[in-house]
Amino acid sequence: MKDLFGKALLDYQNGDYTEDLITSTNISEEDELPLPYLFRGFNEMPKLEKKALKLAKGQILDVGCGAGSHSLYLQEQGFQVKSIDISKGAIEVAKQRGVLHAEVKDILDETDTFDTILLLMNGTGIFQELAEVSKYISHLKSLLKPNGQILMDSSDIKYMYEDEDGGVWMDMNAAYHGELDYFLSYKGEKETPMKWLYLDLEKLQFACETVGLTCELVMEGKHFDYLARLIPA
């Protein structure tokens, strides 16, 4: 990958903010992802994120930390936080902003253990496909200390397939409706397309059951989004 996400974060951090990231999927048109939003403080965060940060405890792993906004808040509350992201640019920015323990790493390569693991801003996205969910959930479980917890959010995007009359039109022979092809561009350059997964709560709960985790609904958002807490069964 070209790490256009990291490049955009670095531009913003270094005062070279001239345009936003452009995102789209195979079922949605192009949309702007404002760079300032990725640098938001606690007061600007959605309610689901605030709730997750308030529930965090002990030693914390922030997965897909981006510019480090969640990690910075938790550090300010006195927590020990490890922040990981596959974007080299994002980790550079997180460090520049004051994140103390930031590392370029895929979650599947993580081996330390934690009291809280955070996967926010559609945390299930990194699972990529429905068939991969159990593998990721099982690995996350292996990173938990006794009495540890995983806090993640996602959305059931079935609404994106609704017609004007409220009917839902999906090809039942096609892949799961939450499996998307995700496209990103920045300053006219296109990133390598990637797979991104939105997972409904029922399927997340089923995957958790198969690996010995209990999945609790913590909070629902206004737009089919939810925050879940995963704990050893």
Descriptive overview:
With about 230 residues, the chain is α/β, with parallel strands linked by helices. It is built from six helices and twelve strands. It has helices at about 5-15, 45-55, 70-75, 90-95, 135-140, 200-210; strands at about 20-25, 30-35, 60-65, 80-85, 100-105, 115-120, 145-155, 180-185, 190, 195, 215-220, 225-230. Helix 1 (about 5-15) packs parallel to helix 4 and helix 5 crosses helix 6 (about 200-210). The protein is globular and about 50 Å long. The model has no long low-confidence stretch (mean pLDDT about 95).
Q: Characterize the main sheet.
A: 7 strands, mixed
Strand order, sheet with most strands: 5-4-3-6-7-12-11
Low-confidence stretches: none
How far apart, in Å, are the first and last alpha carbons? 37 Å
Mean pLDDT: 95
Helices, strands, pairings?
Elements (H helix, E strand, L loop, with lengths): L3 H10 L7 E5 L2 E6 L13 H9 L4 E4 L5 H8 L4 E5 L2 H10 L4 E3 L9 E6 L13 H10 L1 E12 L23 E8 L2 E2 L3 E4 L3 H10 L2 E8 L4 E8 L1
Parallel strand pairs: 3-4, 3-6, 4-5, 6-7
Antiparallel strand pairs: 1-2, 1-8, 7-12, 8-9, 8-10, 11-12
Highlighted features:
233 residues; five-stranded antiparallel sheet; alpha/beta; single chain; seven-stranded mixed sheet; 24% helix; 12 strands
Task: Write a brief caption for the model.
The chain has helices at 4-13, 47-55, 69-76, 88-97, 133-142, 201-210, and strands at 21-25, 28-33, 60-63, 81-85, 102-104, 114-119, 144-155, 179-186, 189-190, 194-197, 213-220, 225-232.
